[in-house]
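Z., the sequence and structure:
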Amino acid sequence: MAERDSVTSAAEGVLASPLRTLVGTLIFVAAVFVAATAGFVIGGWSLLDAAYFVTLTIFSVGYGEVHPIDTGYLHALTMATMVLGCTGMIVLTGALVQVFTVYQIRSMFGMDRVQTQIDRLDGHVIVCGFGRIGVQLAKELFAARRPFVIVERDPKKITEAEALGFLCLVGDATEESALRAAGIDRARVLATVLPDDAANVFITLSARSLNTTLEIIARGEAPTTESKLFHAGADKVVLPTHIGAERIAEMILYPHTARFVSESDDLREIKRGLHDFGLELEAVIAAPSGALTGETVGEAERRGRGAFFVVQIDRASGPSILHPGEEVKIEPGDNVVLVVRGSRVAAGALFSTPAGPIRVGRGRM
């Protein structure tokens, strides 16, 4: 497979050269034909006789002279036509053979087939990079039956992606030609997930200039890159390191959420529905010495400053209170069900913080 990829890349690279040679040679032969025909007309021949004789000479047919070549001018013009015309036809024949050969190589290795599949896509996703995040993203999109194309320059990664059945394009996503080949003018979303912040910024700039309505989701490694990606035109920026750390903190702060949600299919459906609106369903145990333990629901929500609201309290003694009022107190050991918005880490920290003096202005009470 790696050898096949190298041959394919080589075929792509050399294709442009025979095409340029073919077009250039056609222009040269046409110029020789027009100049020679005009020369014979100036020498006193008719336009039809001049064009006929020049055609015979260029193609080396040699049926005979239409009119006698009896002057020095006609001798020089005829020799120039033979040398330049025959040379041009030899080069033209070679260029045609090269073009046909390269197109056969392209057909043999399926290059045209891949580009045809990409050209049929509309409203698709372009994934730039097939590293660790790119692999997982492609698997999720594939499972969701969302059309996408991967742009990757590493032949080994392309081989891996093809083995998984993904549509791939060999190219450097930082080049506009690769983005155009991936159908960026018809794409709905572009996700640039390279581990290189500079490359992600450059891809974002290029993609935004090529499609102003495209939704761009960019990966950033350093926190300082986030603002640069937004300025470059990204709609959303994902910081994997930050997300990973936040997720670990949430597991520490909400260790009971998974068990609580897994007990009911309805709760799992509610959690998914809330997530679509930027909300999360979490469950936390009120510690005996927690800062909010012993406080009322209303006071706890005021302390949270809108970060969460309490929707259910499962008492340690057994009974559950749905939609508890503001006057209901949170007791030690209660399983408090929250709907969280904003930072889930900040909300969970309020319940895990030990009780202590509260800062009021410059003092404590």
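The chain has 14 helices and twelve strands. Residues 1-15, 358-365 have pLDDT under 50 and may be disordered.

Let me know what you think.
H.
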